[in-house]
Amino acid sequence: MWKYFDNPVPLELENTLQAWQSEKPGLGLLALCSERSADTVPLLQQLANRQALPLAGAVVPGLVADGELKSHGVLLAALDAAIPQALIPLPQSADGTDDNAIGELAAFVEAHAGEDGEDTLLLFIDALTPDIATLLDKLFLLIGNRVRYAGTNVGSESFRSIPCLYDNTTFTAGAALAILLPRHPGAAIAHRYCKSTPLSVATGANGNRIAFIDGRPAFEVYRELIASTHGVELTRENFYQHAVHFPLALHLAEGEPLVRIAVASDENGCLSCIGEIPEASLLSVVEAASPDSKETVHEIAGRMHPHSSAAAMTFYCAGRMLHRGAASATSELGELQSALAPARIFGALSLGEIANYHGQGYPRFHNATIVALPWH
To answer: Closest Cα to residue 314, out of 150, 95, 86, 90?
Structure first.
């Protein structure tokens, strides 16, 4: 059960929750608020506490409801009240996320996950966490394939710090919300971005910053690659306007490349990306499939169809939407809705996506993807 509220009126929200409880007692609640409707969070906490509903929620740049993008409103989805969840602060130091916080995430999984690796860890993480890829690597080293991994980055599309994660009593920034979905097949993920320039090497990189590509200032090389291949003259003033169309990608041994959207360049010629870039990574500029391509939808639908469900939670990258435009992104979501019918799709615009390919191996931090997972 899920429902989208264009204009969250307290009485309508309360009546919906009461009806759900009458239909199926013992429910919990997942609530996704668009950034424009974030002031609804205290009301949701009040209603959930009044009805003794466990609440988990996030503030996101936009919502997805029945294959349409929504820039405001609230989306509620029913959860079994017995499903384990935890809101875990992610304090930062000069070395990144505190290892104790990652240990707390691992302990949550160890305490609640089955031994057979058939559960899915669904993560909502503040997008301003600077080392999400490293966090996922460290978590995997602690718990391995004990779970499958899926999730999204949340918060403001302007990349300013806002409270973006909440439960019944807390509304905070700088945290991760973990939900353990029992006996769950995991997520399908795809982007279908293709290499459009020769491979280069990140010869100087730290965290999400690339200082040098092939031994030269990263911005200079990136600008030349885009100009020679696509005829676009990139400057620091028009940077984000164009960079979202021609992101970088890390080329790995398996699966699609990991897209990294560059969001800024500084006076030293360093590029700042959404997501980390390890030193000596193989990089290229990549280009999205044409707007009329259905490859991404077909790939996700093919992986989803063996798992019948009434709904599919979907995360659609905000950078992908900016590249395609809102109308084209809505069209792609509509195609996904049709491909997954009769399942209805709901979810959020994402500031980075989390999944592992085919539900196995390292969880990866992605940009520019569509992620979908069955919602029972």
So the answer is: 150
Of 287, 310, 335, the residue at which a domain comes to its end is 287
Same domain (yes/no): 367, 348: yes
What is the span of the domain harbouring residue 271? 194-287
My answer on whether 247 and 346 are in the same domain is: no
Q: Which residues pair with 125 in a beta bridge?
A: 153, 176
Segment 216-225, tens digit of pLDDT:
999 999 999 9
Pair 267, 243 in one domain: yes
Q: What is the pLDDT of residues 180-214, one digit of tens each?
A: 999 999 999 999 888 778 889 999 998 889 999 99
User: How much is the pTM?
Assistant: 0.92
In 127-228, which ranges are E strands? Answer: 147-154, 165-166, 171-172, 175-181, 188-190, 194-195, 200-206, 209-213, 216-217
Closest C-alpha among 249, 314, 255 to residue 288: 249
